[in-house]
Each structure stands twice: as structure tokens, then as C-alpha cells.
Design brief:
- With 181 residues, this protein is α+β, with helices and mostly antiparallel strands.
- The chain has one domain: outer membrane lipoprotein receptor (LolB), chain A (Clam).
- The protein is globular.
Length: 181
């Protein structure tokens, strides 16, 4: 009987800790208007690094360290520009449409169960409009630290964030789409 009571107490303790994590993550997201960070992106084994600014809702600017590559969303369109190419996509056709919408994330997180990975990360799996998105938060700080998606070319794309700063003063002009060459 004592073993059963211990098991029940442990189970309740775990459920309360997970609920507390979820509430803190949601409150953190509610308080954030923008994120600035460095990133490492792995697309099918090809690693790229750079820095980004996310301005909620749905705006992002990433500058890659090599190839003079820039990714920009103005909230409606997503542009990827390099020295030799220019691609423009409707944002709503990409997984970033969901990742860059903190209200969407908050709503989904409220309804999902978390998964603890390696006692370091909290993961939520989101399935939306044929998009599978894994969102990761640091277990200690409960800050957003990355995501994994399938890109428009069906490549696995893993983006990990580090040196994250929140609510910095930013120039809104950064989210104007770059001109085509």
C-alpha cells in the first residue's frame, strides 16, 4: 500500500511540475515582443550559422555568416536572398508562419503535453496544416531554444538558438523585404 501511495504521489508531483513548466513558458512568451539570437541551422547535414531577430507577430530577419545570405519576413512574405538568387514565398505556406506567431504557439502549448529530453529540454510537437513542428525550450530557463521542421523542399531543418536576448530595441525597417537583384 505504501508503494502505491508513493507512486501516486510521485505521479502527481510530475504532473504538477509539467503544468508549472507549461505556465511559465506561456507567461514568458506573453512577455516577449522580440527575440535576438545567434543560431545554428542544420538542413540535411548542411550546417549554417548566423544571427536573427524575431519581432512578433510573424516578422524575422536572419543574416547568415557565409554566402551573403539573408532571410526576411515582413509578416506576409518570406524572402531568401543570396548573391546569386532571390526566392519569395507566401509566409503562410511555410512552417515559419506558425513559429513566428507567438499567440498560435501559446494556444498550442496550452493544449499539448510536454516531453522532457535528456533532462535539458522541453519539447512540444505541433501538427498543423500538414506541418510537423517540434518546438524546444530550455528546461532550466524555460526560454525558446529551437525548432525542427520539414522545409518547403521536404528537407529536415533543425534550428538551435543561443545567446538569446529578449525585448531589445530594434529598427522596424529591418523587416522590409530586400530588393531583387
Amino acid at each position: 500500500m505504501l508503494k502505491l501511495l508513493s507512486s501516486i504521489f510521485f505521479f502527481i508531483f510530475i504532473l504538477e511540475a509539467k503544468a508549472e513548466n507549461k505556465d511559465k513558458i506561456i507567461n514568458n512568451l506573453k512577455d516577449i515582443s522580440n527575440l535576438s539570437f545567434k543560431f545554428e541551422q542544420n538542413i540535411n547535414g548542411k550546417i549554417e550559422n548566423g544571427s536573427c531577430i524575431i519581432h512578433y507577430p510573424k516578422k524575422i530577419r536572419c543574416e547568415y555568416e557565409k554566402k551573403n545570405k539573408v532571410l526576411v519576413s515582413n509578416g506576409k512574405s518570406l524572402v531568401i536572398k543570396t548573391m546569386s538568387s532571390y526566392y519569395r514565398y507566401p509566409l503562410k505556406k511555410t512552417p515559419l508562419n506558425f513559429i513566428l506567431d507567438k499567440n498560435f504557439l501559446i494556444g498550442k502549448i496550452q493544449d499539448l503535453n510536454e516531453r522532457i529530453i535528456d533532462q535539458k529540454y522541453i519539447n512540444y510537437k505541433i501538427l498543423e496544416n500538414e506541418n510537423k513542428i517540434d518546438i524546444f525550450f530550455d528546461l532550466e530557463s524555460l526560454n525558446l531554444i529551437g525548432w525542427q521542421t520539414i522545409d518547403i523542399y521536404q528537407n529536415s531543418a533543425i534550428t538551435m538558438l543561443y545567446s538569446v536576448l529578449t525585448n531589445q530595441k530594434i529598427d522596424k525597417k529591418l523587416f522590409e523585404l530586400p530588393d531583387q537583384n
